[in-house]
Design goal:
The chain contains 16 helices and five strands. By secondary structure, it is mainly alpha-helical.
Length: 414
């Protein structure tokens, strides 16, 4: 069931963790505890919760999903990753150009407030500069670089929210989460965590009785089955299991456990730290966010990911008031959550269609349901795959982005 409380909880919770951690992102632990006392930072610095690029890009992920749904319903659809990439291009414009931008895809890029540079990641900027110039973006099949930074996973929670409670299978939304990260981060440890985060958030958002431990277990199982041949899948799942084990170990404190998981600057470490904190403090958003940011690593990203997870579980009303008050763009986040919650999500997440016109026929590929064959009025057949050929239709040429045709036993990579 889709409820506005969980959607708001996820986006605002993530922004709260981001804002709490952003103030100490570039500080070591000695500096954090010297400045804020033995508990570290517990409330927003200077009383105002300034968000970082983590929340900005999460918002643009949500905007890209909404754009995709709108385009699908209007008759033309190129796959959600494409529209997310277009939305990220708008974000790139807010970070590199002056307000207002001449041409934009999503309404967020027309807000002056989005034109604040909050330590945007170099990998994201470089990848999107390439997309802006060439209109080519990374995918899990065709990686754009070798980066495994946490800039891919930090923005993936809206994917889980968007598909929560819909007919789209969870493994499909996991893949879309992975593809959304691969737009800028090519290493598998840059996009595998995004698939896991999208899965965890979705399970928690669509089921009131779901627990964080079970959502994490289910995510690990599904993603391991989806990507068995990816070199670093086992490493990713092992780090997630380590987080689970540490959360249940009463003989180690929060900071000591985080040290065993890493610093959070790369995707697998960031998600592991967030999952650990969400598991250790499953019913206490305040304690979870404090644990997630008071370490010498990528505090805003680990805080954001943890806030997304517990916000999806506990809901907006469970977020302490001091994390809502003076949170930058709070009302915009709530509005975006409402748009995601109320969105009419098409049942088909993967097909690529041309503009519909009289006489156009669209049907699934006979051997691979992850692909759509489009027959135009003149009899021309177009294939939705890219970088592949299909045994059933070997004469067809790729048209645009596919989601996961590699799972088809008759798929052949060119």
């Amino acid at each position: 069931m889709r409820t506005i409380d969980k959607f708001k909880g996820c986006l605002v919770g993530g922004a709260a963790g981001d804002a709490l951690g952003y103030a100490v992102e570039f500080k070591n632990e000695n500096a954090i505890f010297a400045a804020y006392g033995p508990e570290g930072i517990t409330k927003y610095a200077n009383g105002r919760g300034l968000i970082s690029d983590d929340t900005q890009m999460s918002m643009f992920t949500a905007a890209g999903l909404l754009l995709g749904a709108q385009r699908y319903l209007s008759g033309g659809f190129a796959g959600y990753p494409y529209y997310i990439a277009l939305s990220y291009e708008d974000w790139y414009g807010t970070q590199t150009a002056e307000y207002p931008l001449k041409n934009t895809y999503v309404p967020l890029a027309r807000m002056p407030e989005m034109f604040s540079r909050r330590a945007p990641g170099n990998t994201c900027l470089a990848s999107l500069a390439h997309f802006h110039e060439s209109h080519e973006y990374g995918t899990i099949e065709n990686r754009i670089n070798h980066s495994k930074g946490c800039g891919g996973v930090m923005r993936s929670a809206p994917v889980g929210l968007f598909f929560a409670g819909t007919a789209i299978p969870v493994w499909e939304s996991d893949i879309i989460g992975a593809q959304s990260a691969a737009i800028t981060h090519g290493h598998s440890l840059g996009w595998l965590p995004a698939a896991l985060q999208a899965h965890i958030v979705r399970r928690l958002a669509e089921d009131d009785g779901e627990t964080v431990p079970h959502a994490v277990e289910d995510a690990a199982k599904t993603v391991a089955e989806l990507f068995p041949d990816i070199r670093h899948t086992a490493q990713m799942i092992a780090r997630l299991k380590k987080a689970v084990d540490l959360a249940g170990n009463g003989n180690i404190d929060d900071l000591g456990a985080i040290h065993k998981l890493g610093e959070g600057f790369v995707g697998d470490e960031a998600l592991a730290i967030a999952v650990f904190c969400a598991l250790r403090h499953e019913d206490d958003m305040d304690a979870a966010l404090k644990a997630a940011v008071n370490h010498g690593g990528d505090s805003d990203s680990t805080g954001a990911l943890c806030g997304n997870i517990l916000g999806a579980k506990l809901g907006y009303d469970a977020i302490p008031e001091h994390f809502k008050t003076n949170l930058e763009l709070h009302d915009t986040l709530c509005s975006l959550a409402a748009q995601l919650c109320d969105a009419e999500v098409p049942e088909n997440s993967y097909a690529v269609e041309t503009e519909r016109s009289e006489g156009t026929d669209t049907l699934p590929c006979a051997t691979c349901r992850f692909r759509t064959i489009v027959t135009l009025p003149d009899g021309t057949a177009l294939d939705s795959g890219r970088g592949s050929t299909c045994a059933a239709y070997p004469e067809l040429k790729p048209l645009d982005v596919m989601t996961d045709c590699a799972r088809c036993p008759k798929y052949v990579r060119e």
